[in-house]
Amino acid sequence: MTMKILIINQAEVYELLPIDECMETMAEALAALSYGTALNPLRQVFHLPGKEGLLGIMPGYLENLNAVGLKVVSVFHNNKESDQDSHQGGVLVFEAEHGALLAMVNASAITAIRTAAVSGVATKLLARDDAAELAILGSGVQAHAHVNAMMAARQIGSIRVWSPNRDHVKAFARNISEKQVVAVRETSTAQDAVKGADIVCTTTAAREPVLMGEWLAPGVHINAVGSSIPLARELDNEAVAKSRLFVDRRESTVNEAGDYLIPRKEGAIDDFHIQGEIGEILSGQISGRQNNQEITLFKSLGLAVEDIAAATMVYNKAVERGLGTWVEFGGSRHVTL
Q: Considering the entire predicted model, what is its pTM?
């Protein structure tokens, strides 16, 4: 018996994983996590010498999909000066009955789409219903993906964008203007972008805060996406302290999120500042936004169950449509040396 796996490349993932469908899949995965029908151990991360790059290993399991999997991804933020994505790797999808490896799916595209999709889910749950003014801090892959997700979550009327690199800001604004029927304005400072915004997405590689609490208007919702390590953050202490904080996973946040760990260490917040997980809102265990004046914050770290759910969806659609490349790989116990 020959055993084959399906290789699904970056372009195919983008074709098979539209943001609205991915948002639905992410909501199901996060709810499963809150119900206890999914497993998501802490990721393992090791830094390469010189701290210029890292390798992350993220396993997970979803009972409703009968899927177990693993994302292996390298993160090299210096790639912004090259034509390589900062996040590269693969998602391995196994079926959970016999442990057969089904597919290897491009992780750059999965990460880009599912990260923004989770922010989209959080925005649907936490942003004001009339939220229309969007501020994007950053101009890379996640900045682009978050525009798509925010457009799917709310009726966005205008977008303001800031990034440290002015050339990148101009290219971002031009690209978004061509793809979306919405006004896009370049700003010279992060404060100008954030002033009066209803939704703010931080998608930078910053190690020090780029979003200050004093800039935030009542009722704003924030998606903090860029930082995923304990020693880096995008928000200052005031921004976190004045917000009702929701997360994708408590365990991940208290171990990995500099946006939470640094203000807690400095005494700006306490151990009880986390209001709950997005999955707990979806499953009805807790409530989300309580009024139109409060500031809500979703801290995204990214979870293996999100990657596996997205990759499983991509695999199933690829099989249906005849996309991807089948490769004979093995796995039968009848093969001998």
A: 0.93
